[in-house]
Amino acid sequence: MVAATSEPSARSTLRLVTEIPRTELRGVVERSSAARAAGPSVDPDRPISVLGVELTICAQMFEALAGTSRDDLWQLRPTWAWVWTAEAADPASWARGIRWARQVAERRSDPAPLARFLCQFSARRGVGEAHDRLARALAAVRVLTDVTSPTSP
Fold it and tell me: What is the DSSP string of 61-86?
């Protein structure tokens, strides 16, 4: 499970997907997703808070699987689709995707083909990870709602 962190507040502090090393992309998106999910009032020591963060991250993953938005592509936002593509694509395909992303961001290319490219590499991996994470979150719900469990609140 991911601990909550504070989200960057200014656009200038947000790193673009084209600026993040492929090996660091998962960590960047994990931290950003947790920060957006947590907000300022989450207590990482309370299981219900962690559960809320995990369910929100699951929703973000399923949203990425439904399709990366044009705004995300135009603004080069690192998303789960980029994480899964980074992990699944061969180096040449990854480089091609990054070049394509730059063209889309400069409005020289339609974002729809780039979205399909990301889906091609991220769909299988993303579905598996999102389902696994959702299963862990649901298991936490069962623990939290089991009145016979010694860990229930």
Answer: HHHHHH---HHHHHTT---HHHHHHH
Higher-confidence residue of 37 and 7: namely 37
The verdict on pTM exceeding 0.70 is yes
Residue type, 18: T
Q: How crowded is the C-beta side of 127, counted as CA atoms within 13 Å?
A: 6
What count of other Cβ atoms lies within 10 Å of the Cβ of residue 8? 13
Q: Which among 2-6, 62-66, 90-94 has the top mean pLDDT?
A: 90-94
Instruction: State how far the Cα of 1 lies from the Cα of 112, in Å rounded to an integer.
Output: 33
Q: What is the mean pLDDT of residues 92-120?
A: 90
- Which residues neighbour 51 within 8 Å (Cβ) at sequence distance 6 or greater? 137, 140, 141, 144
Q: Which amino acid is at 24?
A: E
